[in-house]
Give the backbone structure.
Amino acid sequence: MQSICRVAIGCCTALLIVGCAKKEQPAADTTTAAAAPAPAPRTIALADVAGKWQVRAVPESGPDTSTTTYVLTATADTSGWFITFPSGLKVPVHIEVSGDSLLQTSGEFASQRRKGVKVKTEGSFKLQDGKLVGRSIAHYSKAGPDSVLHLRTEGTKMP
């Protein structure tokens, strides 16, 4: 009789343990859309930016907060791009497309911000909400701590 009681108690204990055990959740599905990589940004088309743009460039920091303005003339290919300053100075710029960005570099020209100093510029633009938005770096020919200037740029398409 004792062995039957032990078996009955053992079975009841086993059922109690199984019934009270915490059920594991199935593993999360890692192939859902949330885990998928973000789509690559659309490559900018030069035809979308062809035309004339009124551009404002403002220093990102420092005591000089004055704005430099110019007109950027853009073509549907990488040739024929140039900047025209209010003084009439016309500067050719080299353009490259890199994904959703336009990379711009100029040769050396007379600075419109610092009289008597030569400067080269490089920067990038993205087309955002119908505007060309980006950053530019001016490299001045004179040595010293202020030989580089970082600017925020924004261009609005002219009619």
